[in-house]
Amino acid sequence: MKRVYMDNAATTALKKEVLDAMMPYLTDIYGNPSSLHTFGQEAHKAVENARHQVAKALNAADDREIIFTGCGTESDNMVLLGIAQRYAKKGKHIITSAVEHHAVLYTCERLEKMGYEVTYLPVDEYGMVTAAQVSEAIRPDTILVSIMFGNNEVGTVMPIKRIGEVCREKGVFFHTDAVQAVGHVHIDVQDMNIDLLSLSAHKFHGPKGVGALYVKKGIVVPALLTGGAQERNKRAGTENVAGIVGLGKAIELACSDIDESSARMTHLRDKLMTGIAGSIPEVKLNGHPTERLPGNVNFSIKYIEGESILLMLDINGIAASSGSACTSGSLDPSHVLLAMGLPHEIAHGSLRLTLGDDTTEEEVDYVLEVLPKVVERLRKMSPLYKG
User: How far apart are CA 120 and CA 138, in angstroms?
Assistant: First the structure.
């Protein structure tokens, strides 16, 4: 039986080149980067090299604008809680969207309990917010706008540059959760008017447990973790040197052939979307048909549960998901799909197939061979299906 992995939005496979770059820092070069001796300085040099790799990939003006964290969730929390704390005297209003990752939404709910006001912008049928919506929502007491770059569930890519322009014109900080986008689409923080950006290594074939936060020079974000002087007093705790080295190598590799990789994945993505729509009746593509991440395919398949589809696909060796891995234990339908206007019964039948650098044409063909049979079998058992 074939084994096909199509859940790259949840996590990607670690590239061999990345593992090779990490190995010396798991074995021989094990010094603490804060130590003054040679062992420590070797580790410190590796961390700074990775910082430069990340800054270059994002076109940051200064390497010091990069802060290493434990994951994208930590980066999101650091921005929201930090900006709220530091700039509370200016105002206590924050703007985000209804389709953000829960790392942003739950933190906003936490801030609301602390006396802050949050505006959750609605999205259209494609899961998109517009710069005009952001502009209309900004008030004199608005201190932060946080809009994700590419949606983790339906793949819709937001008009980030224009939103950034609006925020810059109105003097409001702009943060984007770019966890799903970094390494897959071109990102230039200067050209796109991005003030703060979150990323996570394991979404672009790096290791789990390490992320980064871009903070434009001049913006003060207080430390989320205190207790040490690491990361220029921005993130206490001994650095995960091997993980940071892996992040740096992974982002360097991803950006070195981003055009070729994006074009290849877009071709496979479109083949999947066309094949599913053409071979399975009564399905709905979720997300924008063209303004979407290169490797994201998301359909609602009517009359059957997404969980049943996943189990049947897994029996056939295909790994997929029904939404965000962070909420896979929940029985509730996707908040993203509900925000896009889908009724509960259709939102429950969502299937997300996400591609990676290792995905092949043969694997796409296999999914297109297996999925229609799975859907047909499940619909025969469904009391809702009249076909």
Answer: 12
